[in-house]
Amino acid sequence: MVIIFTAILIVMRLAAELWLNALNRREVLRHAAAAPPAVAAIMDAPTYEKAVAYTLAKNRLARWMLVFDAGLLALAVFSGVLPWLFARVCGPSTGSGQAWSGAWFILIAGVLLSLPGLPFEWWEQFRLEEKFGFNKSTLRLWLVDKLKGLALAVVIGFPLLWALFALVRAVGGTWWLWGWALMFVFQMLMLVLYPKLILPLFNKLTPLPEDELRARLLALAERTKFHAQTIQVIDGSKRSGHSNAFFTGFGRFRRIVLFDTLIAQLAPEELEAVLAHEIGHYRLGHIPRMLAVSAALQLGGFAALAWLAHSAWFASAFGFPTDIMAPVFLLFGLLSGLAVFWFTPIGNFFSRRHEYQADAFARDALGAPAPMVGALRKLAQKNLSNLTPHPLFSGFYYSHPTLVEREQALVKTV
Ligand SMILES: [Zn+2]
After folding, report:
1. Is the pLDDT of residue 220 over 70?
2. Is 124 part of the annotated catalytic residue set?
3. Structure pTM?
4. What is the pLDDT of residues 265-301, one digit of tens each?
5. 275: alpha, beta or left? (left if phi > 0; alpha if psi -120 to 50)
6. Which of 69, 278, 355, 407 is catalytic?
7. pLDDT for the residue numbered 187
8. 294 burial class (0-12, 13-18, 19+ CB within 10 angstroms)?
């Protein structure tokens, strides 16, 4: 019963993903010959042609990866390979060794399950991105990144899992509340530590050099009451030609990071607009609101986890011994996405609302919509963005409104 239900969920999600993908592909092909009037001013004809080819190439790869991921998930949970691995790693372990070996089991299973997808990741970086001029990484750098990621999983993921399982044993029936609290504290800690400790393992962060641009951006920060000490530049160009800006941390630990590629591509007033947009997220309270929502969702997740852990049918349906926590955690991690997927558009709907608000904040801070519009257009050109996504596709997957939607909102309410 559980197996059939799970199989149906896997097929349903794959069908929905492939359908959305095909819808988007048709929409792009429909406009492939010439850009529709609404977006014709954004890209010149050769750039538009390249953006269409890039979108279609990514769409093709996504189709293969969706089928592959669904097949891998089905194989992982139905073949019996995970219970086999569990018996190897944990054996008939009971007592205090259980938290330790349970954490190892999840870590090893996670690493093994990530291996089959590596050829796709390689192809994406060194064939697809390469073909369109975005790849700046080397095979060596790519491999070193993977090894660093693995080391981080061991150094951070293992103790966290171990603490979680130890907690389960220590506090009894209310473990899921304590587990949730532990995860929340861990995530807050990571928000502060990530830019200080983890990001520098992969990238070089340097303060924006003292020049006219820095003075201008800091003046804008002052004007919008952000009071930044420094603006960091990250060497994104080490791996990719794509450009971006982002915001990390909170309170005293907040910082704004601009990609070096972004600084190279945008005019000073456009960079001001991007910075003002990021400050907008901070000043409008988007970050604590998102943290609160994600904490509430995680509490629901832990409650579901507790329920499944107490339901012997769940673990045994997938061939695991009951009354041991680690397999339930792993199965939950693998399968929860089958349900969460259907709520993707709700999360993205609220995310897009925040983007509109941050755009409006940037426009008001700069006194005109033009710099923000200019920045968005250049970003779309340089990143070869899809200008004609299908509304259902963008409505489902896009955390940011489309370029046309953002431009319309920016000029509408002046
Ligand atoms: Zn934003």
Report:
1. yes
2. no
3. 0.92
4. 999 999 999 999 999 999 999 988 999 999 999 999 9
5. alpha
6. 278
7. 93
8. middle
Each residue of 44-53: pLDDT tens digit?
Answer: 999 999 999 9
Per-residue tokens: 101: 């070996």
Does the pLDDT of residue 396 top 70, yes or no?
Answer: yes
Structure confidence at residue 397 as a pLDDT band (50, 70, 90): very high
Neighbours of ion ligand 1 (CB under 5 A): 355, 358
Instruction: pLDDT band for 28, please (50, 70, 90 cuts).
Output: very high
| Residues 304, 404: Cα–Cα separation, whole Å | 40
Q: Which of 69, 129, 272, 359 is catalytic?
A: 359
Residues 314 and 305: their CA atoms lie apart, in Å, by: 11
27 is catalytic: no
Tokens of 108: 């090893």
* Alpha-carbon gap, residue 46 to 184, rounded angstroms: 48
Q: Which long-range contacts (CB under 8 A, 24 or more apart) does 136-144 make?
A: 136/237, 136/238, 136/239, 136/240, 136/241, 137/238, 137/239, 137/240, 141/238, 141/239
